[in-house]
Amino acid sequence: xxxxxxxxxxxxxxxHSLFNREGVASAGFAPDEFGEWVETVADEELKAVSAFLLxxxxxxxxxxxxxxxxxxAPLIALSERNSLDDTLRLFEWGVDDxxxxxxxxxxxxxxxxxxxxxxxxxxxxxxxxGAMRIYFDGRDPEIEGQPLPLPRRERRILExxxxxPTRRVTKTQIFNAIYGIFDEDVEExxxxxxxxxxxxxxxxxxxxxxIDSKRYLGYRLADT
Length: 224
Known about the structure:
DNA-binding region: 124-223
Pfam families: Trans_reg_C
Strand order of the largest sheet: 2-1-3-4-5
Structural class: alpha/beta
Protein name: Response regulator transcription factor
Largest sheet: 5 strands, parallel
Domain Response regulatory: 1-116
Shape: elongated
Keywords: DNA-binding, Transcription, Transcription regulation
Distance between the termini: 31 Å
């Protein structure tokens, strides 16, 4: 989920629509609402945020240090002024990147991916579970060396399961990571439909179902 912070509701709604077209969950906040939210939101919900986009806000409304204390997600400023002083001020304030508007939504997504990739250079960009190699940079998984093309949300679910190898994750946690914690237009049960389709594809390639589920406890990936 991408969080957009801007004092103009029309702007946050516009970005929500654009991200939705790309199949990416998002949520919009006014600066004062965001400040309260980031102070009180549960850690599990905050983990669903893949990036923060900072639009028009009064200086001092948003504390970069507090965001950094609670999340390592990229923080990108959207600038409407072609000013070197403004750009340098934003970097000093603590953002990871400054993007001048107008900018295509796909460029924003590409910049988020690039920042996350740089941050993960010393960490693993994939994990191997049995015959599966599951990437965390947007690439399709591989099974015995052969790519397995998956729709975006099925791939994200597989990545999320793979990123939590030592514990089970609940349907609610998967939903929050894939759709965002504020999407009221989609029922949580859609996760079961995605997992059912994902299971079928993995079973066809592996010869068994690698998604182990237990009622009330959640899901995890197994290698046999």
